[in-house]
Amino acid sequence: MKNARLPPLVALRAFDAVGRRQSIRAAGDELAVSHTVVSRHLRNLEDWLGVKLVEARGRGLVLTAEGARYHAQIGRALEAIARATADLRPTARRTLAIWCFPGLANRRLLAHLPGLEARLPDWEIVLHPTLARCDLARGEADAEIVYLDNVESTDRLRAELLARPRVFPVASPTFMARYAGVETIRDLLRLPLIHEDSTDQWDRWLSLAGVDTPPTLSGPRLWHAHLAIEAARLGQGVALANEMLVEEDLKTGALIEVVPSDLRLCGYYLVAAASRWEEPTMVVLREWLRGLAPQALPSRK
């Protein structure tokens, strides 16, 4: 018999994720469901409670006063469930859960994953591609790899810069054969540009290159870096990529660097709980990731 005092657990998990991420889309990425499913769970929970939990502010969401109080209590309850589950699970079953950005997982880590499995034969490796940040304190993952400007170590979390790769425009050779006379970065503005979730990356890269951009950059938005790179491979335009993601494509000639540059935007950081940083498994993970850093790729001459 259902307990009438308890709302659906799936709705509580969706609300907890929305409260932590401040974004329905990011909550969907974390839970591996679409943002429409998260929105439905959130509405159902509000209807069940008869209370407004979130409200729109600008382009995002914030918790209402009632939602913030409820979220704090729900968070503690879910943490208690996570701790109880961890205590109960058989110690013989050891899992190393790694969250990372989808582009890195798809285009860099996946091909080399057998190497990590060989170094940790008694561990089950779980690679979770997501744009969301995990809650390491709650045990959502053992480690995460993020692509950010900077990540500082704290008393609770340790962070290590793995690579700050060069970022440059790439396209397929057949695409570039259709556009003659592209020799400077400014020439890129007359080509079809491919974007991820927004035009921000191109805006920032062009600004660093000293190029004034139009008020609005056009082109398709494909959300994830690996989709933008794949679209470039298919001859649909020019994508921005870093050498961690396109090293093999440049070697095989599937992609070419459109114009020479030496610009870097963010770095890949490994982040894990400080209390676990020197565990043998974490040491192996760090060493494996260091070995995946790109070889020095010169810009195109």
Could you characterize what this model shows?
With 301 residues, the protein is an alpha/beta fold. The chain folds into 3 domains: 9-88, Winged helix-like DNA-binding domain superfamily/Winged helix DNA-binding domain (Arc Repressor Mutant, subunit A), CATH 1.10.10; 95-164 and 266-290, 3-Layer(aba) Sandwich (D-Maltodextrin-Binding Protein, domain 2), CATH 3.40.190.10; 167-257, D-Maltodextrin-Binding Protein, domain 2. Helices cover 41% and strands 18% of the residues. The protein contains 10 helices and 11 strands.
What is the 3D shape? globular
CATH topology of the largest domain: D-Maltodextrin-Binding Protein, domain 2
CATH level 1 class label of the largest domain: Alpha Beta
Radius of gyration: 22 Å
How are helices and strands ordered from N to C? HHHEEHEHEEEEHEHHEHEEH
User: Per DSSP, what share of the residues sits in E-state strands of 2 or more residues?
Assistant: 15-25%
Q: What percent of the residues sit in helical stretches (DSSP H or I)?
A: 40-55%
Question: Number of helix segments?
Answer: 10
Question: How many DSSP E strands?
Answer: 11
* Spatial sequence of strands, sheet with the most strands: 4-3-5-11-6
Largest sheet: 5 strands, mixed
Instruction: Return residue spans where pLDDT drops below 50 for at least 5 consecutive residues.
Output: 296-301
- Straight-line N-to-C gap: 71 Å
CATH superfamily of the largest domain: Periplasmic binding protein-like II
Global structural class: alpha/beta
Protein name: LysR family transcriptional regulator
InterPro entries: LysR-type_TF_proteobact-type, LysR_HTH_N, LysR_subst-bd, WH-like_DNA-bd_sf, WH_DNA-bd_sf
GO molecular function, one term: sequence-specific DNA binding
Domain HTH lysR-type: 7-64
